[in-house]
Amino acid sequence: xxxxxxxxxxxxxxxxxxxxxxxxxxxxxxxxxxxxxxxxxxxxxxxxxxxxxxxxxxxxxxxxxxxxxxxxxxxxxxxxxxxxxxxxxxxxxxxxxxxxxxxxxxxxxxxxxxxxxxxxxxxxxxxxxxxxxxxxxxxxxxxxxxxxxxxxxxxxxxxxxxxxxxxxxxxxxxxxxxxxxxxxxxxxxxxxxxxxxxxxxxxxxxxxxxxxxxxxxxxxxxxxxxxxxxxxxxxxxxxxxxxxxxxxxxxxxxxxxxxxxxxxxxxxxxxxxxxxxxxxxxxxxxxxxxxxxxxxxxxxxxxxxxxxxxxxxxxxxxxxxxxxxxxxxxxxxxxxxxxxxxxxxxxxxxxxxxxxxxxxxxxxxxxxxxxxxxxxxxxxxxxxxxxxxxxxxxxxxxxxxxxxxxxxxxxxxxxxxxxxxxxxxxxxxxxxxxxxxxxxxxxxxxxxxxxxxxxxxxxxxxxxxxxxxxxxxxxxxxxxxxxxxxxxxxxxxxxxxxxxxxxxxxx
Length: 507
Known about the structure:
By secondary structure, the chain is mainly beta. The chain has a domain of 229 residues: Single-stranded right-handed beta-helix, Pectin lyase-like (Pectate Lyase C-like), CATH 2.160.20. A hairpin with a 5-residue loop joins strand 8 and strand 9.
């Protein structure tokens, strides 16, 4: 990560030098009208083109509401929003273009956008203004003439910001609101710096907040995201370029889906990614979700110093074999990927009492038969849960769902552990884990099925009564359970089943 900071620092110095003494291009001088009604696509594009042709500079959005369809960024152009300046998305889908079509994880063709950059260098979005996509108004107008089900028609609605195969991108201070689909999508781009951005994008489906898709050398800092879909999501919709060398810190994340997510689209690798000092709150479909299901290698990821409040199912880790293809003209189906060398540490979470799986559980970890989540470490974790599991819930059979879309609900209606449920794992290390329960739960704190080299160290467990076991190990080879303390009225502290062997216990 030190090398990443040096690279980005040098790029920012160079980029700043390029902008010094560059001219300003006020969109009003090119015919733009800030009345919220006049369509300004042509006028804004003229200002951008003139700025680019002069060698670069700033395109100024003054105070006002400037209605527009698709506008295209060019090399060495900064779009600067003055206070109370708004770039307002048209509600007419005919005003948008798709400069880089692709298919997203649910199989829908997407890519239209309000502000788009394709294969350009040294661009910036900055200032105290707003880009407002009017997503709900776009949808309301769209459905008047398009009567297909929502799941088929939504892909025509525009993203707010799309950055495609660019190098040297800075997004500072702006507010992004109410996208028609994804709010910001960065694809196969390098040297990204995203800081102090506020996102408020709810009202229609698929309002992802910050989407990093096959990008490298990325810094994201001090952003505040409230999104209708995943707040911070890493994707690889193409096998050609990994998400790599990424540092994220200081984010506040609220979402109708997940707070922090990798996948589902997962063809190229996710590697050398560090996320720290973030707060996740009021998420309806997961806090941290790391998913590789289309052939990607997910490795060398560290997530630390995370707090969560009112989060449904704090963590999900999934290695699967859905094996979808999203850019069918350039990619082919891959074999199952890998999930290895991931560390999650210093996490404190208050889980929502009303969750996708009932009664709620804290952490779900699962590969598929023959493909194991390997060397996953969870350390210094505290999760508060509602409890309420019954004796029959402790024997819940969980579907493998090998080729299914990977969601928490995929493994429903519940899992047989209130704390950690793990299946198809190798080298799983669970250190200094604490669970708090609001009521008695007759499920084990930990269930591990089909595991090798498992460490359970320094657990602090709540008092429960009447359970069959506190820890259940099924078909587990080589496990250590040490100093896993807590009052227990269970029949067994560690229950060993199946073809388990070499299990060492030291309470």
